[in-house]
Amino acid sequence: MVTAVSGVSISPAPALVAKPAEAAPVEHNGFAEMLQRFSNTLQAGESAAISGIKGEVPMQQVVEKVLEAERTLTTAVSIRDKIVSAYLEMTRMQI
């Protein structure tokens, strides 16, 4: 056991002292807002494709926007499938 020594104070090293974590701001985005972002991404991909056909936008930017729209559409379809699956499972439950 360590006993106190007069004139000497012991404190933990500054790097080892745990600081309370600051809470990250929580955004309460609703489902409708998520769908709106999906819609905006799909529209951006479509408009980039049209601009690319007209030659107004570099091809790399067109490909990036179209691939982003494709990922968004795949995500939206996956979410829809999960919702439909959950609904069908609930309808099969016995009351």
Entry keywords:
single chain, 95 residues, mainly alpha, 2 helices, 0% strand
Q: How would you characterize this protein structure?
A:
- With 95 residues, this protein is mainly α.
- The chain has a domain at 32-92.
- Helices cover 61% and strands 0% of the residues.
- The chain has helices spanning 31-54, 59-92.
- α1 (31-54) runs antiparallel to α2 (59-92).
- The chain starts with 30 loop residues before the first helix and ends with a helix.
Backbone shape: elongated
Q: Measure the end-to-end span.
A: 64 Å
Low-confidence stretches: 13-18
Order of helices and strands: HH
Task: Let me know the average pLDDT.
Answer: 80
Helix content: 55-70%
**Class based on secondary structure composition and strand pairing:** mainly alpha
Percent strand equals under 5%
